[in-house]
Design brief:
Blueprint lengths: L1 E6 L2 E7 H6 L12 H18 L7 E8 L3 E8 L25 E6 L2 H10 L8 E6 L2 E7 L5 H14 L1 E3 L3 H7 L1 E4 L2 H8 L3
Antiparallel strand pairs: 1-2, 2-4, 3-4, 5-7, 5-8, 6-7, 6-9
Length: 195
């Protein structure tokens, strides 16, 4: 099980099929509300609190989807509670917290075919741009996350996880030690590998 903090009120949890099997949970049981799945959920929340400080307070939204080769990805978002008419919360003028976007992220791909597949899968998202590098004999794609809306961000993230792996590499490291192939990688992939 792996936990990543997306923002102040949102986390992403990766649960492998091995994790599920070790708890006696079948793949199809994951999307039911059985006792084992509830226990897994509360264990995930404890891990999220311990690893990234995500404390579950108030209502939450849970999204789950499968990754064929990796397991299940679960996104947990704390949603603001609706004010009760006449309650004290209506009297406060505090703005709602905004999504705290990551500055950037880098995905690594074992071969160029995976990069091409990602390019085709992301071809319709025009607001997205990225840089493509070769670093340590693998392909690395750097994404600046500052302009993506949340639904687009989640779609992009799931596509990237299908073909590549999130790595802890900075753009500065790629600029210094990697070889830049394209500053506008998706545009290049659309041009040369459209079919």
């Amino acid at each position: 099980m792996r936990v990543e903090k997306i923002s102040k009120n949102k986390i992403r949890i990766f649960v492998s099929y091995e994790d599920l099997a070790s708890r006696g949970i079948e793949r199809d049981e994951m999307f039911q509300n059985g006792k084992k799945v509830q226990e897994l959920f509360w264990d995930m929340m404890e891990v999220a609190y311990a690893e990234v400080g995500f404390e579950m307070i108030g209502p939450i939204a849970v999204e789950a989807f499968t990754m064929p080769s990796e397991g299940v990805v679960i996104i947990v978002t704390q949603v603001p509670s609706l004010p009760v008419p006449g309650s004290l919360s209506e009297l406060t003028d505090e703005p709602e917290p905004e999504r705290d976007p990551c500055d950037s992220f880098v995905f690594s791909f074992a071969d160029f075919e995976d990069v091409v597949r990602v390019g085709k899968a992301l071809a319709q998202i025009e607001e997205l741009d990225c840089r493509l590098y070769v670093y340590r004999k693998t392909y690395h794609v750097f994404f600046a996350d500052d302009s993506l809306s949340e639904p687009v961000y989640d779609a992009v993230w799931s596509i990237l996880h299908e073909y590549g792996e999130l790595v802890n590499v900075t753009r500065a490291m790629l600029d210094e030690y990697g070889k830049l192939i394209s500053e506008h990688a998706l545009e290049m992939l659309r041009t040369f590998f459209e079919k």
